[in-house]
Amino acid sequence: MKDSSMLRSIHDSLEPKLITLFKRQGYSRSDFIADAIAGLAVAIVALPLAMAIAIASNLPPERGLFTAIVAGFLISAHGGSRYQIGGPTAAFIVTVALVAMKHGYEGLVLATIMAGVILIIMAFFRAGELIKFIPYPVIVGFTSGIALLIAFSQIRDFFGLSITTVPPDFIDKLSVYVAHLHETNFAAVALALASIGVIFLAKQHIPRIPGPIIVVTLSALAVWGFTLPVETIESRFGSIPSMLPTPVWPDITFEKLRLLLPDAITIATLAAIESLLSAVVADGMTGTRHKSNAELLGQGIANVASGIFGGLPATGAIARTATNIKAGARTPVAGMMHAFWLFLFMLLLSPLIIKVPLAALAAILMVVAWNMSEIKHVREIMKAPRTDRIVLIVTFLLTVLVDLNFAIQAGIALASILFINQMMQSTQIRSVESEESDPDSTANKIIPQGVEVYEIQGPLFFGVAEKLVDTLLLFEKPPHVFILRMRYVPLIDAAGLHALEILQERLSENNTCLILSGVNSQVHHFISASHIDKAIGCENIVDHIDKALLRANEIIDNKVS
Questions:
Q1: How many domains does the chain have?
Q2: Three-class SS of residue 454?
Q3: Contact, 87 vs 52, CB < 8 A?
Q4: Where are the beta strands (DSSP E) in 20-125?
Q5: What CATH code is carried by the domain that includes residue 495?
Q6: Are the beta carbons of 77 and 18 closer than 8 angstroms?
Q7: Is 389 in contact with 382 (CB distance < 8 Å)?
Q8: Mind listing the pLDDT tens digit for each residue in 324-371?
């Protein structure tokens, strides 16, 4: 019965939001019309972004389109959010470019498929809820770092520099840019600046029409009409296909899997974080609630399929999801329709799409980077406690100067260490003299001579274990009985248990009896399971201070007699 209940719970947590909604409310003709219109609005926004992200990753633009179509459809069909729009996102640019440079495009495909499998495993192990435990300063730090790297990666096309290969490292990239700055193409710069201006003006005055689609249309017309000497998709990449490629499974060897595992973990982690953040944003805008584990499952399926169909890593896209909501979407069908519209665009408009200038796409990504930069949240954290500021700055610098994978690991590790330090400081081991008045205060009890009473307030874990043993150094003369009050100890770990064992041994060497008072059931269970209760004596572990004092009197009377 218990197993069937657990299986049902797992099934419910992984059931796609699409199926849940269809079961609950059905699907009408008006729902489909609303979803189709919303999907079209999102597809118009996604078209230039998908190509720009692929180009920024040093890959052909069609890779971005394949991803938006295949992964975008599957994320909506199998995901756990009602409004989520999936596809290639700017956050992946740096990682994708590095993986493709180190292992080639085939290596990137395998890493993407591996990341998809990791996401599926995470879904089955219900890891969707665990993402929320990544500290907020870490998320803001690496997001801001990625934003800077994205903006920096667009300098070549923004300034029209004739650089064949851009190095992956930030410092090396800066050196190359400085060396080629004299080659600046002022027509490209003017076009890029005008594109940024158009995007911001469109947002203010005609918010219903996406700025990026206006930019790619007007910039292509300007290059054609004025024969501007700037690079276009066609001049760099040639034509783009008008159909999806035949699915191909990459060659897999153990050595390839071993080499690509760190990159796959980075892709999976980033996809999980960004997709769930996007789902949370959508919930905040609509008052709905997403299914985090189903969302991870959808992301996993989509990334496996994207790799097989020649795409890039995919995740939930916050800006496109917000556009979907504002356009009146009602169900995940809107995301599936967005993929369908993109497929039609590629099928019918590919000869026109290749006329778009690269400077305009660079401008679009510059705006995306600015929106990702989290300037407002960075300012808020810089007014927060010092530990949060340190985590933010370290994560940001490591993202920019080292790599995203190491930045996330180091940021989480640093945040954990600083948190443990704060917990250590909040856990007090104090004597009765400093105790505040309360119904069971020892200040109102008669403490026999030769008895010392100390109290722990907070969890007894490895961070404070040494502090407990050091308490013995405070005694000029060993007492007959040492009562340790543990009524405010909610939990104990292995180091805490070991500290109790050491404390018992040290007290025993001085002929001092240890009594534990106010031990809750959970802590008592672990003390018993580790057999420390036998060393202390089961009669010396009690649940109230009055019982502890009675036991202390008995011990002293026995010693006197």
A1: 2
A2: strand
A3: no
A4: 86-87
A5: 3.30.750.24
A6: yes
A7: yes
A8: 998 999 999 999 999 999 999 999 999 999 999 999 999 999 999 998
